[in-house]
Protein 1
Amino acid sequence: MISKRIKNMTPSATLEQSAKISDLKKQGIQVIGFNVGEPDYNTPMNIIKKAEEAYHLGLTRYTPAAGMIELREEICRKFKRDYGLDYTPKDVVVSSGAKQSLTNAFMAIIDPGDEVIVPTPCWVSYVEMIKLADGIPIMVALEEKDGFRLDVDKIKKSVTVKTKAIIINSPNNPTGAVYSKNDLVQLGQLAVDHDFYIISDEIYEKLLYDAEENVCIAALSSEIKEKTITINGVSKSYAMTGWRIGYAVGPTEIIKAMTDYQGNTTTSPNTPAQYASIEALANSEASVEIMRQEFDKRRQYIISRINEMKNIHCSTPKGAFYVMPNVSHFYGKQYNGFTVNNSLDMANYLLEEAKIAVVTGAAFEAPDNIRISYSNSMDNIIEGMNRMEEALSKLQ
Ligand SMILES: Cc1ncc(COP(=O)(O)O)c(C=O)c1O
């Protein structure tokens, strides 16, 4: 018998769709994948070389549960350089991806029945992670008309005596929204006043456009820093999703609890990948910039194409590599026996009719939208937008 804990978990929304996509591919049909959540770039060569070096140096054994001291020192240097923040290696725990860092954080702070505020639209896994830790996710819907900005007045109404934490994500997956300093200051003050933690997932930190800058909420005041666990990693910034290195930085006591949990569940993260991650953090900004500029060109193209199409509109994302157009105008419309009643239907319709793979917004608590990732070549984006325009125009 499978445990109730796992039975209550919603499997990743994209899995079913992936099966359909591979079926179509097996039939020789060219599907354009706008569903991917990772850069379409290879890891920069200087980083790969460091991993090779690690194997030859015999860096193939376990490391301390919290990760190599040299990597934790490099992470401290990064926070000092980027945000003027002072951390020491005992305030840092390296994990097998930011996903594990997030799980560790929830496991370390949540007791059964504790509430965690989740502003939505949100990344698919937060809610499941909170439930797995016996917490209660409290969703707060942000408004599309405001560009999905962090509405702290709205969040304030959801704070109760049981509020243990809020999870925020800027730049945001799926909306691409980047939270303003003003809103983050207000949220930080709310957390200090009501004594709850802020888990700040900043995994898309380097992918910012239109001269936006990442505001690391922990840097806003020493009181806010005491309440904040910052989550980050090398996956998105350095095109290293498969290397599985993420990290968390925060109050020593919480980091210790996260490390203890990790020590018993996975020991330590991959050693050569940790060694390579030092190089990523220390010497790879030029590669990030090339990738960022290319993403920006694609972003501008895709927004202009979508906003030129009829009956669909899209707010302008300032970060990450996703756009999230509103497709609700088409609900109730049909073509060729296929009726689109919701965002999952729309994703299925676009896959069947246009052979493009997008993700249903419902997976992110955004039922009026679909998520399109522009982590794909410009040629594929142009072709994919042509196909989407044609497919939408057929819905009557
Ligand atoms: C918002 C967000 N946080 C965390 C992650 C996980 O990153 P990692 O590959 O480091 O586990 C993702 C990956 O899609 C993400 O979109």
Protein 2
Amino acid sequence: MGKLVSSRLPSRWGEYTISAFGDEGDAFPHVVLHRGLSAFDAENPVPVRIHSECMTGDVFGSARCDCGEQLSQSLEHFKEHGGALVYLRQEGRGIGLVEKLRAYNRQDEGLDTFEANRAGGHDDDARNYDDAVGILKELGIENVLLLTNNPLKISALRQSGLSVVRQKCVAPVTTDNADYLKAKAEITGHLFSTD
Ligand SMILES: [Zn+2]
């Protein structure tokens, strides 16, 4: 796994370098957008969002989860401060789009987001961050200001030798996402306090 190609990507959130990471021939490589990395040093950790793909939230503005809101908050942050988005192709907490949509149907029958995954034979969270760690190291990023609410992500990066300071990335609670956010807080210890 390594960098396959980089290009220039002007966007509504500023001008980025976009890179694809994977193995040659991968149809769905991981994607990194970064800007202004040279401005950071040991005293100034690089703002980083490690974002697992959520097509429904990221592309279609789904209100069932907080992914799209976290993605746009992160890009707004990078627009002002610089940083790196590591976009991992592990849709649906790692179970893929088809199984995620099946889990949505179970949620509409009353299960929470984790119960719905377990009913499909999946773990609570099938994601892993090994590729993200490899990508950050390849980019020379060892000192991270991590935009996240996920304690598992923070500990995974720390165990890999990266220095991590957390920056909150909290989406507003709505009627559509309230149960989802509550389950994430209770079951995987997500940190949603906004104080
Ligand atoms: Zn989502």
